[in-house]
Structure formats: C-alpha cells, structure tokens
Design brief:
It is a single chain. This protein is 36% helix and 22% strand. It is of the alpha/beta class. The protein has one domain: 3-Layer(aba) Sandwich (Rossmann fold). The protein has an 8-stranded mixed beta sheet, with helices on both faces. A two-stranded antiparallel ribbon has the order 3-4. A two-stranded antiparallel ribbon has the order 10-11. Helix 1 packs across helix 4 and helix 4 packs parallel to helix 5. The longest helix has 18 residues. The N and C termini lie far apart (43 Å). The model has no long low-confidence stretch (mean pLDDT 93). The site of adenosine-5'-diphosphate (ADP) has 17 residues, from helix 2 and helix 8. The site of adenosine-5'-diphosphate has 17 residues, from helix 2 and helix 8.
Length: 256
C-alpha cells in the first residue's frame, strides 16, 4: 500500500517536471460526447501551429480516441528513446501527438475500470517525451469521471475550454463540467460553440440553431471564444485525416 502511494507520488512529480518545459497547457472539455471536442482540439492545435508555435496534443479520450484519425495517423506507432515515448508527428505542422490508440490494435476497445485508467493515464503522460512546447492541448473524454479528474489534478493547466453545441441539453451538461473545473480550481478560459450555424452553400443564407450557449456564457461570466458552423467540408477534412489542410481559422483574433 505504502509502496503504491510512493509510486503515485513519483509519477505525479515526474508529470509536473515534464510540464515545466511546456509554456501553456489547455484542456478541451465538454462533459458531453459527440459535440466536436476532438475537432476543436485539432483546429486549436492547427491555429497555434500556423503561428509558428510548437504544439503537442495529448489524446486523453482513452475510450474513444479520435485525434490520430483527424490527422491521418492511425497506423503510426510512437518510438521510444532514452527520454521515453516519442510522440507521433503530424505531416504538415509537426504537431506532437500522443494517443493510447497508437498502442492498441485497430478496432479493439479498452476495457478498464477507473483506477486502472488513472494509473495508465499518469504513466502515459509521465513517460512521454514531450520536449519543449509552447502549447499542450489535452483532448478530454466526455463526462466528469476519473480521467478529467486526474488531468485536472495532475497537469498544471492554464485552464480549460468548454465545447458546447447550441442545444439546451448540451448546455446543462457543459454546466456540470464548468462547475467541476471551478471546484478543482481550474480556470475556464471560455466556451467554443460548435455546430453553431449552417450556411446554405447555394443561397449563402445563415441559419442559427439557438441561444443556449450565449445564455450559459452569460450565467458563468464566460466569453464565447469561437463559433464554428456545421459544415460538410469540415467533416470531410476530418474524415479524410487532413484537418491540417482545412483553411478556415475560427480562432483568429480570439486572444487565446
Ligand atoms: P467529440 O470529440 O466531442 O466526441 P468529434 O470531434 O469526434 O466529437 O466530432 C464528432 C463527429 O462530428 C465527427 O465525425 C466530426 O467530423 C463531426 N463534426 C464535428 N464538428 C463538426 C462541424 N462543425 N461540422 C461538421 N461536422 C462536424
């Protein structure tokens, strides 16, 4: 028991040491699945990389990892070096990606209980050779369970970005995630509204879907950092694993 405790303390210290080489650490959360958390993580990473920053992504969505797919990296494997596991580099901007999916055979689900997931996550972060980075972006799993708790506890974050869609149901779940982050003394940097509106490709008319996100932002005194439309092109670039080629930067001028 004592030995286990000591091992955990050492892992946590190792994580903290690694994080001192990373200037900014941001977690992308939502509480709800399927709202575009991974897409937002990828677009944010590309935004910083286009400004010439060194960027890494930790895919902490162990049970539904999708970052490798967005960057076309599903068949890649991280190499090991004396500093630990080397993240896989994306083809265009050399974003340093680490995902549990690199270690699991295709199509196989990870079936772990909370304590096991926590241990693997800590091992994973501590033994990755992140190097010097300007930004590490953490793609969180949905929910407010063990992984988000571990990330919020172990990684000294600048803050979290919440991803919402303009639906009341999403807003009420994102609200829980906001409260969770604040309870754990983590700043919420703002909300990204995904699938915010739809622009008709033929007539250019814009249809907006609802105001639940702006109401949520007002209630918690938060900024809406970016609004991303529901767009066929974006889905296509993501599905094809070429999100780095997607031209529009929704984070331009966002003060992040
Ligand atoms: P999450 O990480 O929250 O589970 P994903 O980022 O994996 O969500 O997105 C779920 C699906 O929705 C993906 O197929 C993605 O390509 C698609 N998607 C996300 N955002 C948009 C958008 N703004 N327009 C069109 N498709 C989107």
């Amino acid at each position: 028991m004592q030995e286990k405790k000591q091992e955990k303390i050492e892992l946590e210290e190792q994580i903290k040491r690694k994080m001192t080489h990373i200037k900014h650490r941001i977690a992308v959360m939502s509480g709800k699945g399927g709202v575009g958390k991974s897409t937002v993580t990828a677009l944010l990473a590309v935004h910083f990389a286009r400004q010439g920053r060194l960027v890494g992504i930790l895919d902490a969505d162990f049970l539904g990892p999708s970052i490798p797919k967005l960057f076309g990296l599903e068949r890649k494997k991280p190499l090991s070096s004396i500093d630990g596991l080397e993240p896989v580099l994306t083809s265009k901007y050399a974003i340093r990606v680490m995902s549990l999916q690199f270690m699991t055979p295709e199509g196989i689900a990870v079936v772990w209980r909370g304590p096991m997931i926590t241990k693997v996550l800590e091992d994973f972060v501590a033994h990755t050779s992140w190097g010097n980075l300007d930004y590490l972006i953490v793609d969180m799993p949905p929910g407010t369970g063990d992984v988000p708790i571990t990330v919020l506890q172990d990684i000294p974050l600048d803050g979290t970005i919440m991803v919402a869609t303009p639906h009341d149901l999403t807003a009420s779940i994102v609200e829980r995630a906001i409260n969770m982050a604040r309870t754990m003394d983590t700043e919420v940097l703002g909300i990204v509204e995904n699938m915010s509106y739809y622009r008709c490709p033929e007539c250019g008319r814009i249809a907006r879907f609802g105001s639940s996100t702006s109401l949520l932002a007002r209630k918690y005194g938060l900024k809406v950092i970016a609004s991303i439309p529901l767009e066929e092109d974006l889905a296509r670039y993501c599905d094809a694993g070429i999100v780095e080629e997607y031209k529009t930067d929704y984070f331009e001028g966002s003060e992040l």
